[in-house]
Amino acid sequence: MPSGVSSSRFLILYGSQKGQAQSIAEQLTDQAAEHGFEAEISCLSKGDEYNLEKEHSPVVFVVSTTGDGEPPDTALKFVRRIKKKSLPRDHFSHLHYALLALGDTNYTNFCNCGKTIDRRLQELGANHFYATGLADDGTGLEVVVDPWIDGLWEALKKIFVKMSASDLISGISLSSGHQSVAVLEKLESSAQSLQLLDISDADTGESKPESETETRDAEIPLEASLNRSVAPLSQSSLSIPALPPSYLEVCLGDVPTGEEEVHIVAQSFHEVPLSRALWLTRDDAVKPVILLELDMKDENISYEPGDAFDLLCPNRDTEVDDLLHRLGLHDKKNHSVHLQLLKNTKKKGARVPPYIPEKCTLQYLLIWCLEIRSIPKKAFLRSLADCTQETQEKRRLQELCSREGAADYDRFVRNPSVCILDLLRAFPSCMPPLSLLIEHLPKLQARAYSAASSSLRHPGKVHIVFSVVGFPACAEHPERTGLCTGWLADRVSTIIEPYGTKQASQESVDYAALPKVHICPRLNNSFHLPSDPTVPMVMVGPGSGVAPFIGFLQQREKERARNQDSAFGETWLFFGCRHKDRDFIFREELERFVENGTLSHLKVCFSRAETDRNGSEPKPKYVQHTLLLHAEHVARILLKENGCLYVCGDAKNMAKDVNDTLMEIIGKELQVDKLDSMKTIAKLREEKRYLQDIWS
Ligand SMILES: Cc1cc2nc3c(=O)[nH]c(=O)nc-3n(C[C@H](O)[C@H](O)[C@H](O)COP(=O)(O)OP(=O)(O)OC[C@H]3O[C@@H](n4cnc5c(N)ncnc54)[C@H](O)[C@@H]3O)c2cc1C
Fold first, then answer.
1. ipTM higher than threshold 0.90
2. Does ligand 1 lie within 6 Å of residue 256's CB atom?
3. pLDDT digits (tens, 9 = 90+) for 270-301
4. Ligand 1 centroid to residue 577 C-alpha, Å
5. Does residue 544 line the site of ligand 1, with CB under 6 A?
6. Is 136 within 8 Å of 122 (Cβ atoms)?
7. The pTM of the whole model exceeds 0.80
């Protein structure tokens, strides 16, 4: 091993957008010492902290993917650097690395950033010492991350042995005689020290069953639930993750005097009034859809159809109140919160969360800074277990974060979208300090909504359209609505215009009395109308996925009126909903676009249409079925006329189904196999002629 390189040191490099990759990298750093390693951690953006060109210790990359397969901002420069064509093919031949990529199969280009780095490192001669992990947030990162981390330690041990062996061989190649004996002796001593590592590994005490559990056998309940387990899990010994080191000290100060409210959290947001709210669906629609008009005329905001807006909505007052009561802090809700790092914390790279303003009140912290609805991660459950008095409750929390309890975690925590308040209700003897919540709850996130209007038609305004997310009551929690869509729906509940209202009755509604909405434009680079208006286009947007296309068509309608002699490309819209009479949103506006020629073809399907009793052909149910019916035109526009295909809406099913259908259409049209169809689709994407704006 090159001199100066420790036989247990390795480097962790992370590229994180929302903090998940960073948090996993930090978790690795924390666990490394327990396994006898010395981990150095650095963000990929901090190029001055590491030098891969001279790195002879193993390197572990943890990288996420953002947007449409883009690298996170912190990894952009690194990716650009390693992609340089001038780098020789053996540039990284000295490098031994492992890579954990994070992604979400609900989006296209799953784990693209990790895959790109991996591919490029391979091209530049670097060597894997452990198989690449691809973790899917869609099904739960833990499913891959936990076993990947478990296997990493063994792989590190092996690579250190291998590296020291090859180092020895190269080191003694010039000396005579007893080479193999010397190598063997050194290897043996390496192996011994590794066995020692194994012993220390096993000696954590965490995997031993709790003695108390044995006394519970007689009362094993029949059915498991969030706070109750059944055999075999209730009797199993558990592999529990290491306790994450705490790192924050929280002091509650005086009640701030005066009205110096802190608005730092929402500082990058514009506060705009609402100017209209309308039901787009009938009362009996399964997924109710609301249109909101936001008045931006006093703000300097411009947008194009295809752009989206981030909306920051606060946590519910009632939930924050319940949480404060439960933590025994309700009487301190107006006290100011002071945060500092715990001296002697073992957490690597610990820092005070930058999104919590100094001296904000406790109530403000819980309303505006933390995502209190987030699903607690296993590390959080692990910490909560240590704050729980009652033996059975403690054991259950340990089970839920253990490897053996992974299925129960999915069933009782992840799938029902349990949040911290639900846990505290289910585990009454759990009494976490406030610092633990701040350490484990992520930052409150804004939610994005596509602009459903054009500023040519609605100057100074933007429309957004959303379906109100509903979480039905279940054993784990009461009924509730989505954080943002539910908050917005509640705000407008008293003034919202009924379904079918044609013209806003502005006078009767006091919009100024409503709370303003925090918005921030989220400009899109490519999901826009083609710059050449003669380019034909196909738009696929079922449900609220039609939003950006309403903006496209409003814009096109105005452009056509202004330039009556100009040529405009053919436009197709494929829309789908459940029922013709209940949730066919924007029906009249779409029919007007068809009448005045803005929209050449409107193809609508209904997934819950009455069965045709006349025995005629079954009607298409979903947009992909309608697309197939018009395959010839779709193929012509895309393959012969250089046209564009836009897809917007549900990422889980629709986007994938549409993609599969497109593959079928291309395969048939070009008479090629699946692989070649995929290549054609990849080319369309590259040319920005197949564009997706999809969400789950
Ligand atoms: C670029 C972009 C543009 C978007 N544009 C739009 C848009 O125009 N219109 C729109 O409606 N949305 C849009 N979204 C999605 C939107 O940002 C939110 O995710 C969505 O409105 C839910 O927010 P919420 O805070 O109400 O729900 P949250 O409280 O965040 O809950 C959402 C969670 O609930 C789950 N969930 C969703 N539906 C249900 C259900 N019925 N029952 C149980 N669980 C459910 C989801 O998997 C998700 O994990 C867009 C997203 C992106 C990224």
1. yes
2. no
3. 999 999 999 999 999 989 999 999 999 999 89
4. 17
5. yes
6. no
7. no
